Amino acid sequence: RGWMGDGQVTCEQAMINFDMAAFYANWVATMSDDQALSCVVDGADGTLQSSSVARPVANRWSITLTSQKSSAPPPPPCYEPSWASPINVPNPWKTVVGAIPDVVPFTEQPFGGFPGDPTWAAAYIVVPFYVYKYYGDTRILSENYDGFKAYLNFLWLNGGNGLATFSYYGDWLAPEITDKAMVASFFHVLCVQMMVEISTAVQATTDVAVYTKQSQQLIDQFNALYLNTSNGFYSGGTLTALSTVLSAGIVPGPLVANVSSALYQHAQARGFLPYTGLVGTRYVLKALTEAGSGAAALAFVTATQEPSWGYMLAQGATTIWETWDGSGSHNHPMFTGGVGVWFAHSVVGVKPTAPGWREIAFAPDAAVMPLLGTASGRFDTISGTVEASWQLVNSTGQGRTLTVDLVLPVSTSTSVWLPLFGAAATSVTIAESGQAIWKAGQFLPGPSGVSAASVQGSNIVVQIGSGQFAFSAVYN
After folding, report:
1. Model pTM score
2. Which has the closest alpha carbon to 43: 78, 92, 97, 99?
3. Whole-number Cα distances in Å, 358 to 136, 148, 303, 364
4. Using one digit for the tens of pLDDT, what is the confidence trace for 93-116?
5. Dist CA 171 CA 279 (whole Å)
6. Largest CB tally within 10 Å, which of 20, 83, 297, 434?
């Protein structure tokens, strides 16, 4: 069954590790097939009526259900009451035009709801967005663009011309409970933020302005609803609540430090264990690392108590579980999304910064590097193979040496972020293949493919092209 929530939180790590372009193109096409395009709500009782119903249907390469051949309206949202507890569901729906189900292919009862929970239905925008980022594919955006707009309009109208708050599942199977409404609202904001970039990619200039304005409106509504300005808490300060808003840039600028501190303190109070569910596990490592707490993120990853990935391993697991205690499915992807991305972006330090890997950043987390000492990875991208490895010798004090080896595809460019580790830029010497490129705080032109270097914050950033590079940085 194609549960959309699991699919959207894991899609980025899947694209890092596998060739997913064709798979996701097919799945997104099925999402489009399953989108409600002409149903309207008519009547105080919330009945759905239309003279030409376009309802969610089974996979177009599969059978057609008898009920789908009739002219009857689509079924109302269906839930399995043993595990779903809907909140804030409009009664009646303002519209269902543009709605996406929880499960695609949608096969009516008993799996999932229609219209879908905003966290699950978000896959219709989140998955194509990352397909564009990792494969440079604008076709998947342009072919589904009207569908994206219809879905966002569905959320907007059912949020009373504003932020959607209806939800069924929340942060699914989390040990600590986050407000379901906040989780759903977060994905409404996130989808509109992504739509700004999608509109830019398909050159829909007018829509860029529309969604930029709408994004800020939704963020303002979100903070008015869920932010406690006195303590920097969202939804009681859970790991999920704090990590999601930090990851998406929802927190007002003056409060970012407070919210980041609240996230670290709560992580510490939880023993640096992921008390998070489907949603929070996707974002908590990223949020901690970006807030300067990469060491805390590493503690999450290396923990062996319940709840943790290490606990699963200690119990003999060879696949990822649906629940931290092992009581559910023992072959479930949802807890892999955040950790898979974190390994690539923050440990190995490689991520695309332009669609299709045409531009790349090498930037391992400076707090993680001294704790691990070394890391390496290989990524088969749409632009070619990217290889990266680094090693830190004498991880503290004078005489520290960092070596970095990179192999980069033709027609790509890369920014190499080398941490200062608290040293002055003037005390660091950097060489590429034995030839100095940085000394006494200055860039030294010379080696082929190395075009510039400068100090940016607590890093020396070297600009390079394609090819094979071997850097060494000595901290005197």
Report:
1. 0.91
2. 92
3. 9, 26, 36, 19
4. 898 899 999 999 887 555 778 889
5. 5
6. 297
Supply φ then ψ for residue 209, to 5 degrees: -65, -40
Single-letter amino acid, residue 238: T
**473 has which bridge partners?**
402, 430
Note the pLDDT of residue 110: 57
Distance in angstroms (rounded) separating the CA atoms of residues 407 and 362: 11
Yes or no: say if 179 and 236 are a contact pair by the CB < 8 Å rule: yes
Q: What is the DSSP letter of 186?
A: H
Phi first, then psi: give them for residue 267, nearest 5 degrees.
-60, -40
Q: Angle at the Cα of 170 (from 167 to 173), degrees rounded to 5?
A: 145
Q: Which residues lie below 8 Å from residue 415, measured CB to CB, with a gap of 6+?
A: 353, 359, 360, 361, 362, 363, 461, 462, 463
The stretch 428-435 carries a mean pLDDT of 97
d(CA 431, CA 433): 6
Give yes or no for a contact between 377 and 390, defined as CB atoms under 8 angstroms apart.
no
Q: How far apart are CA 222 and CA 194, in angstroms?
A: 17
C-alpha dist (Å) from residue 435 to 426, 443, 446, 454:
17, 12, 8, 17
How many helices (H) and strands (E) are present in the chain, helices listed first?
Answer: 14, 16
In the block, residue with structure tokens 């060739």: 19
Q: What is the mean pLDDT of residues 115-141?
A: 97
pLDDT of amino acid 74: 38
CA 118 to CA 156: how far, in whole Å? 11
